[in-house]
Amino acid sequence: MTRAITGLLAIVAGALLAAPAAAQAVKGGYMYTLANFTGSIRQDFSRVTVDRERNEVYVLYQNVVRVFNESGMEVYQFGDDLELGLIVDLAVDERGDILLLSYRGSKLAIVRSDYRGRPQSTVALKGLPSELSEFAPNRMAYRRGELALASTAGLQIVIADREGNVKKSYDLFRLFELEEKDRGNVEVSGFSVDVDGNILMTVPVLFRAFVLSPDGKLDWFGKASGAPGGFNITAGIVRDRKGNFLVVDRLKGSVLVFDRKFAFVTQFAARGYKPGQLAFPDDLAIDGQDRVYVTQMGRRGVSVFKLTYL
């Protein structure tokens, strides 16, 4: 009997060791809304990015870039005089310089400015392949010396160095294996780059989130469903320090969390107008202190949540 019990325990122990580790539980708790000294800043859809090294937050809305400190208070703003052109997106490099994706008419430029918005230099894309001669990006991310620029409607991505030299490009229409009838009907919504250089995207009409690795390998996850873990209308996507994927669902008013193997973990926030709820959320970013910044409509501003790992 003793031998039998010992053998059974060995089998159970072996099975436990062989079983995949359960996804780490995580919670997202509401903290506050970004504000200035007169109260919460009420604005609609905006772009948000963070300086992870300095824990500063940058929000772009109607060509104005607002700078917030790590307490969520506005400390500066610039861009309203259009001196920098029409700003469509922004990013921050490791030196704390602000990179502005800007247009003057149809002419594209990447303006490098200091934290006060004072232009330091202008970068133009160089070496674009002929098939991208009309490339007009409207999204930009920066990671480890590289710029990732995307045309969300054109389904094109270009990777360039900090001087604007094009290193590679991707045709998402081909990578997504779309048909000609889909052209013009499929657009990228969420767009970011994680610490490993993977490009993260969501495509609402496909009910999918995509991960494009630096070597060109494309993975995806997601399905259409109103149930927990399913997608209704996807938007922003980022990755936390544990490797989890955070995906905004506009219709649910929630942020869905998936582990690095794409298994659904949890979701936080809900649709509504009370503190901690979200009204048709859109973009999001995460800083070095596990704070998640979510933009939304309805003049609700940018809501801030804190991730807690259990």
How would you explain this protein's 3D organization?
The chain has one domain: Neuraminidase (6 Propeller). It is 7% helix and 44% strand. The protein is built from 2 helices and 26 strands. The two termini are 40 Å apart. The model is unreliable at 1-22 (pLDDT under 50). The chain has helices at residues 2-18, 172-175, and strands at residues 26-33, 35-36, 39-40, 47-51, 56-61, 64-68, 74-78, 86-92, 98-104, 107-113, 119-123, 139-143, 146-151, 156-161, 166-171, 191-193, 199-203, 208-212, 218-221, 234-239, 245-249, 254-258, 264-268, 284-286, 291-295, 302-309. A 4-stranded antiparallel beta sheet has the order 1-26-25-24, with no helix packed on it. A 4-stranded antiparallel beta sheet has the order 4-5-6-7, with no helix packed on it. The longest helix is centred in the N-terminal third of the chain and has 17 residues, at 2-18. The chain has 310 residues and is mainly beta.
